[in-house]
Amino acid sequence: MSELPPDLSPQHEEQHQVAKGVAKAGGIMVASLLLSRVLGIARDSIISGMFGTSEFTDAYALAFQVPDLLFFLISGGALSSAFIPVFSEYWHTDRKQDAWKVFSSVLSIMSVIILAFIGISFVFAEPITAQLSPGKVSSQSFHEIVRMSRILLPAQYAFFIGGIMMGTLYTRKVFSIPGLGPNIYNIGIILGAVVISHFVQPGVVGMCIGATTGAIVGNLIVPFLVIRKMGFEFKPTLSIEHEGTRKVFRLMLPVVLGLSLPGVFAMIMRFYGSYFPAGTNTVLDYGNKLMQAPLGIFGQSMAIAVFPALSQFYAEKKMDLFSAQLSKTLRTVVYLSIPASVLMAVLAPQICAMLYQHGKFTAEATHQTAVVLQFFCIGIWAWCLHPILMRAFFSIQDTVTPIVIGTITTFVFITMVHFLKATSLGYLALPFAGSIAPIVMVIVMALVVSPRIGGIDIKAIGVTIGKCVIGSIGVVAVAGLIAWTPIASSIQNHKLPTILATVIGGLASVWAYYLITRKLNMAETEYLDRAMAKINAKLGRQT
Most exposed residue of 69, 129, 280, 464, measured as fewest CB within 10 angstroms of its CB? Predict the structure, then answer.
């Protein structure tokens, strides 16, 4: 390690080293989730061309209602989020035997619970589906929704148990292997659409078979092989005598009892979407998935990367480092997500045409999806901040407060949808309310968690937001040349010109944003400076 400046204290050195570790982990997760989103977009592009928008594509979207309900009831997201801080606390305080005891008991108990829930959901899939997708009960596709739901159910075991195994890898600062899970899952769906669909009727059933296969391979088999090679101690037990095991379930309990918006958002959207004409759930689903691209690349990746560090700081009672790292991560995500949301809003028609408009996917469906995406773009930055703030609460082993805030926000969302869907907005009330609600949610979460961790640098974050808005003027100006000039109409319905204009316009917009924010002396531009320096260095070595 290079020599440190004489004025760099050991505490600052630790913060510097952890920050480097978070940045490296964040880079790995960004790359993994970027690949996942690219595969996800390729997946949806293939599906849109092959199947278009119809009652059966709606059925495919609605088939996830029962599995998602199971995931919500057993608090799947909170399982790993509750497990990691507890496992990390034992691991980083030289109590590894205790860590593995917690791992063994949690995995064993949850396996029994999950398998029981899967069995019950399989048997009662039809009445459950009728409650979750009421608008489709009398449709011809209802029984196909039930059939596909049953095919998708076994994947939930892989997601739950795989999340526990991946939690042990995150604690040991191994981020590359968990990043493979979503990619293998997407590959499974793609193979289901391209290959398996030709052997089943209707063809969309093939995607469900591929999804379950990809989930089992990517989320269960691969992490198991890796942790076995790295060394682990698993002894099946249903005992809850260990305090660490009881703590994991105490942390999970509020999520089971809550209705936090991120956990039920897709389910509520599909519920209300089932009342609208055929194809509505499909365009809502495509718009939602495009919105989740920056959420996954920026929000979830940075949340996963910073979570072990925050958990470690809390375990070691170093709250000044905790606060500094959280504030820095929030500013970084703001810097990346605001221009992404602006760019996607301006180029939404071109993006949707580039990705979806071919085969059976019509120009009208493209227009509907683009408008849905534009409404979602209002709240992209808030959705990206949410997983960071959730990890802040989970790191201090508080799962009650964020769930209470999320539950209240959920009722705000439902109330908005209930009143707005009868207006001229129609189904667009869903993405609109789905953008306003998370903005309210993250503001409240930040204000509540700040005093508990020694203070979030709210002022610095506010300055970052202001400068990002100024920088985004460049995004609007450059992307607008593609979206709001004769170029847009001249390339309409032509795939290659649309792709070229969208890609070139997008890259030019990002460059304009970078130049403006660099002139504004934003520290976050250093990430791009380092990335460009690495690329130039590699190119220099090659030449």
Answer: 69
